Amino acid sequence: MREHWALRWLKMCNEVSRWSPCPRGKVGAFIIKNNQPLSQGFNGPPKGPSSLCGNEKCLRSDMGIPSGERVEIGCHHAEANAITHSAREGISIKGASIVINCEPCLSCAKLIHHSGLSGVIIEPRGYSNAGLDYLKSVGVNITLISTD
After folding, report:
1. What would the pLDDT profile of 130-140 be if each residue is shown by its tens digit?
2. What's the CA gap between 54 and 77, in Å, rounded?
3. Phi, psi of 99, rounded to the nearest 5 degrees
């Protein structure tokens, strides 16, 4: 993907991240193939009636959990929401790229790899590098771009 298009998709990630009800952090993701969106996601609670982690406050923040760790506590991540949405709708994402406005955690990196996504475009925020290290180790193409 050309850099000017990657930058536009990152800006869209920042826009869709505003839909997140999470008080801790807002993340957006788009799955793109041939410069067309296949799926999108933002971090938030499960579909249907649900409370956001600890309702108006973030359990992860209250428990002092660093970003990228203990992912079983808290909301669904934007990457996971985009990937599972495509699966639910029967949309093949094999060979596509995912654009994310932050580094993926290790669990999301594993989902990215095993779902067949071939590229990741990320706006670095200084979160955990565990996901990036995993993606590098399995040969997923990583592009880092800043929107500043």
Report:
1. 999 999 999 99
2. 16
3. -110, 125
Angle, helices 106-114 vs 130-137, to 10°: value is 30
- Is the pLDDT confidence value at 50 over 80? no
CA 65 to chain centroid, in Å, comes to: 18
The whole-angstrom separation of Cα 48 and Cα 76 is 13
Cα separation, 22 vs 87, whole angstroms = 24
Give the pLDDT confidence score for residue 48 in this predicted structure.
66
**Whole-model pTM?**
0.90
Sequence letter at residue 135: L
Any alpha helices (H) in the chain, and if so which ranges?
A: 3-17, 59-62, 78-89, 106-114, 130-137
Instruction: State both tokens at 38.
Output: 């296949």
Residues 6+ apart with CB under 8 A from 141: 97, 118, 119, 120
